[in-house]
Amino acid sequence: MTRASVPRIDWRQQVSALEPFLVDRGGVVRILVSEDSPASTFSKLIRQLMRDGSWSRTWTSVQIDPRNANTHYLSDLLEQLKRSLKLEDDPAADTGTVTVGSNIHANNVDISKVEVNLQEVESVSRWRKRLEHVADGIEDRLQTQRICLIFLNSHTYDESTLSQIRSGLWDERLAAMVDAGLLLVDISDSARCGPDWPPDPDLVLELPERFDDGSRADAQADLADIALREGIADAENTAEMFAMTLLQSSDKVRDLYANLARLQATQAGSTIRSGPA
Amino acid sequence: MAESEEAERSLLALAAPESLTDPLAHDLLRVALDQSVDPEPFVGALHLCDFVVERNSEWHLAAEVREVLVERLIGHRDLSDLLHQRLLSFTKPGSVEEIPPELPRYLTEGVGRAYHATFLSPDGLSDYVRVAKQPISGQQWLAGNLASEQVRLGVIPENAIEVLFLRGMILYREHRRREAELLLRQVAESPEQRFEVAVSSHLIGRMDGRRFRTRKRGESLLWKSLEIGRKIGDAGHQAQVLHTLGQLIGRDPKRREEAEGLLRESLEREPTMNDPLGRAQVLHTLGQLIGRDPGRRDEAEGLLRESLKMGQKLDERDHEARVLHTLGQMVGLASARRDEAEGLLRESLKIEETMHNALGRAQVLHTLGQLIGRNAGRRDEAEGLLRESLEIGQKLDNLNHQAQVLYGLARLKGTSPEVAKALLLESLDLNRQIENKSGERIVRKALSKLSRNASA
Which of A206, A232, A252 represents a domain boundary (last residue)? Predict the structure, then answer.
């Protein structure tokens, strides 16, 4: 399968700030985005840098996104971590089923004169064991590899889920693994974030929707290089013309990537020649 | 085929599934266009777009893009049927010769089957009920979203029981009880004799049963739920409803015998269900009920110890903690056994702490504070425990718990009448806020006693 790699168009400042974390530093990196920032593309780029770079320990990155059913609830997230890190099943944590009925069993404790309210707790112990099993697995893997958890659009998570992730997983276990090289990258809209997430960052970056004057010049240079490398242009002056035209016809960074995708598809001889209207 | 038509069909093809893998995208493009087309360059280039959101081995189109495309796809009936038929076939192993080597999980875990089958026929709705029966998971949440999308598109009628039930169950399990109640009540009111109505009647019956003014309505819904359970031959459901009915009816001191009969009937059904935790829970409730009768405390203790043993065997630590709590409460009623009761409660507390169960911890601290408070020499220690419990209740924003602990603090030996009055008034206010009539009554009684003592 040949998947086009995501070309880096500018983002020099962001990638340079990330460099120490890519090399050997663990911690929390917060990337602030607004509604039209190219958040998903930047996340692809980070994972690509981790995958393709040459690092002393290989990277495994896991993307966590509330829109993804596989990471929607904390229990799904634990399952995804288990899959991505290829952790073995824990028989003690995975036995038993919770049916419609068993989580509507009531557990009231009201023998004394004062009623203690009803609790509807799924098997907390089973859930706790699963969490510990996954956390132990991450700790073990960190001895030989780097692990990055990328939270994409965490501001769209339900607050109670974030609170569970924060207190149950991060504060309890993962925060202590930062020294061993665990990296958490949170890409979210700061204006829509709750109090529980993300944890205190070691680095904060912004991902603007549009290029400013400085980054536009760098982007133009990068685009000209791409045009020459991909055979879109056969000479420097046509490559520069191509870059300038593409930048002028793309209002936002994400439009630029969409226009580039359209060109690449056409260039590759695909029968599909236009993107979504 | 014209170029623009090809382009549109390609994008529509990729919008038909909820999520994709590259092999699935290639397969769908070949189906939508022409078998000879090489879809790889297009799919490869598509990954450059920000609206293509990568997951781990899967990817999806951003919601705002997919929403537009899905609506357009509805207008292309032939293409829509072709794609949903193809996607549905991947959910049924053995139904097609060539299955893409990697499929997104939603296609293999039941949700895809419900979603794609429903586009082709209303019979697909029953698959959503199958998903609703599963434990809460992201896949179930997704099913709720996809069913809502199909309601929006006019594929499913808005009042379809299957969808109301699915969405209601998800909200219920997300502890969004008020929103869940709105949907599940509609299902519970249906005259149909089916599983969804039985479960909804059980849940709404329980909710109603907790409120003083709707207790009777709650009980009648529970009887309805039991009746449907019997008609559809669901022994597990019957066992659970009998348990809930036993709990509800057991609150009425005049109907304890009836409640005991229901709980014992529930126990009779549990063995057929292979649900040892369910059995342990019913034994717990039965122990609580029988323990209210001072003459049967030994029998109650035996049941609770049996329940505890089962929980330990199953390694259900949270169940253990709850039974130890009840045992501590009951054993502590005998003044000669207070030390033993304290030991049981401390054991329960230790488990709640290990489980990071804040509410459980707060509840045990409350009982422990009440127990220790009976010893005048340990009053300060008792107050410390109750204050710690109250603080957790405040952090959890649990008004009911706060109301109870404030009452406990007011009743603590050695609390001055002024302080006790202030605490009781605070408790009364909280009970009012949560409409806890029985809580209100208990607090009012304590306030009257306080003022009688003051005027005496």
Answer: A206
Distance (Å) from the alpha carbon of A202 to chain B's nearest alpha carbon: 25
- Compute the distance between CA of residue A265 and CA of residue B76 in angstroms, rounded to an integer: 25
Number of domains into which chain A is organized? 2
Give me the count of residues in chain B.
456
Residues A221, A165, single domain; the answer is no
Return the CATH number at A20: 3.40.50.300
* Whether A58 and A148 share a structural domain: yes
Residue of A nearest to B403 (CA): A114
CB B350 within 8 A of CB B312: no
Four-residue CA torsion sign, B334, B335, B341, B345: positive
Is residue A218 domain-shared with residue A127, that is, in the same domain?
A: no
pLDDT of A123: 61
Q: Which of A109, A165, A232 would you mutate first to test chain B, the one with the most B CBs within 10 A? A: A109
The interface pTM score, or ipTM, of the predicted complex is: 0.86
Domain assignment present for A108: no
Residues 64-123 of B with CB under 8 A from A: 65, 68-69, 105-106, 111
Task: State the Cα–Cα distance between residues A110 and B248, nearest whole angstrom.
Answer: 12
Same domain for A223 and A182, yes or no, is no
Residues A243, A222: Cα–Cα separation, whole Å: 8
C-beta atoms of B278 and A105 within 8 A: yes
A217 and A189 fall within a common domain: no
Instruction: Classify residue A145: in a domain, yes or no.
Output: yes
C-alpha distances out from residue B35 to B10, B18, B44, B180, Å: 13, 23, 18, 47
Indicate if the pLDDT at residue A34 is higher than 70.
Answer: yes
List, for residues A183-239, the tens digit of each pLDDT value.
Answer: 999 999 987 777 889 999 999 999 999 998 888 999 999 999 999 988 888 899 999
Amino acid identity at B13: A
Q: CA of B325: which chain A residue's CA is closest? A: A109
Residues A261 and A127 occupy one common structural domain: no
Q: Are residue A62 and residue A131 in the same domain, yes or no?
A: yes
For residue A152, the surrounding DSSP H or E stretch is: strand A146-152
Q: Is residue A3 part of a domain?
A: no
For B317-326, what is each residue's pLDDT tens digit? 889 999 999 9
A100 domain-assigned? no
One-letter-per-residue 3-state SS of A110-144? CCCCCCECCCCCCCHHHHHHHHHHHHHHHHHHCCC
A215 touches chain B (CB under 8 A): no
Q: Which range of residues forms the domain containing residue A197?
A: 12-93+123-206
pTM of the model: 0.82
Cβ distance of A272 and B10 shorter than 8 Å: yes
* Residue A165: DSSP 8-state: I
- A102: closest chain B residue by CA: B278
- Could you say which of A206, A224, A250 is where a domain stops? A206
